[in-house]
Design a protein that fits this description.
alpha+beta; globular; five-stranded antiparallel sheet
């Protein structure tokens, strides 16, 4: 299995399965083609990407540059997000995601009935 790990938002890292990453690459190419000012944005995004593969125990090595960028050290929270996995510092996740969720019951009832 092949995955691509990158930071595209400041607070966390995103781990894309190969199939989803191919879709993201198409979007990046289209973005670059349609907007000449996008070239440098695409360069920055791609420069923060690293191909990773799980070892026999299912672990991946997170490059030091990405660990530092997302301020990961020690325990890392993995959060599945439909078509990708996010890697968070647990305290940052609590303050960024959990603290800003608002009325989850209302949202859940809209989704699940």
């Amino acid at each position: 299995d092949r995955f691509v790990l990158l930071q595209w938002e400041v607070s966390y890292l995103t781990l894309f399965p190969e199939e989803k990453w191919l879709e993201v690459q198409k979007n990046l190419l289209e973005f670059r083609r349609s907007d000449p000012s996008a070239w440098n944005h695409v360069r920055v995004i791609i420069s923060n990407a690293a191909e990773v593969a799980p070892d026999k125990q299912g672990r991946i090595l997170v490059p030091a540059s990405l660990q530092a960028a997302a301020e990961l050290s020690g325990t890392v929270l993995l959060s599945g997000n439909l078509d990708r996995v996010e890697l968070w510092d647990p305290a940052k996740y609590a303050e960024t995601v959990q603290a800003q969720t608002g009325d989850l019951n209302k949202f859940a009832h809209q989704l699940f009935g």
